[in-house]
Design a protein that fits this description.
It contains five helices and two strands; from the N terminus they run H-H-E-H-E-H-H. The chain is mainly alpha-helical.
C-alpha cells in the first residue's frame, strides 16, 4: 500500500507520517533511536529529515544521555541548531 502513496525517500516517508497526524495538526516528533558510535551524524540527519517533512521535533534520550556530558550537550545543541536554522525548510 505505501509504495502507491509515497516513495522510499526518507522525507517522503516522514511526510506520510505527518499526514497521518491529522494533516499536521498534531505535531510529529520522531524518536532518535539507540545510542551508538555515529550518534551526532545520525541525530542531525534525522532532525533535518523530520524538519523538511514538516515534523515538529526529535526525541533524543539515549543518544545524548549515555554519553559524556560534553558530547551529550554538543549533540543536543546540534539538534537545536537544525530546528533554529531558517535555511532548512519544508521540502
Amino acid at each position: 500500500m505505501y509504495r502507491h502513496l509515497t516513495t522510499d525517500h526518507p522525507i517522503d516517508l516522514t511526510r506520510y507520517q505527518v499526514v497521518n497526524c491529522y494533516m499536521g495538526r498534531m505535531g510529529l516528533i520522531n524518536s532518535g533511536g539507540d545510542s551508538g558510535e555515529d550518534d551526532l551524524r545520525q541525530a542531525v540527519k534525522t532532525a533535518v529529515i523530520n524538519k523538511r517533512a514538516g515534523g515538529m521535533g526529535l526525541i533524543s534520550g539515549r543518544k545524548a544521555f549515555q554519553k559524556p556530558m560534553k558530547d551529550g550537550v554538543a549533540l543536543l545543541n546540534a539538534i537545536q541548531d537544525v530546528y533554529l536554522e531558517k535555511e532548512i525548510t519544508v521540502a
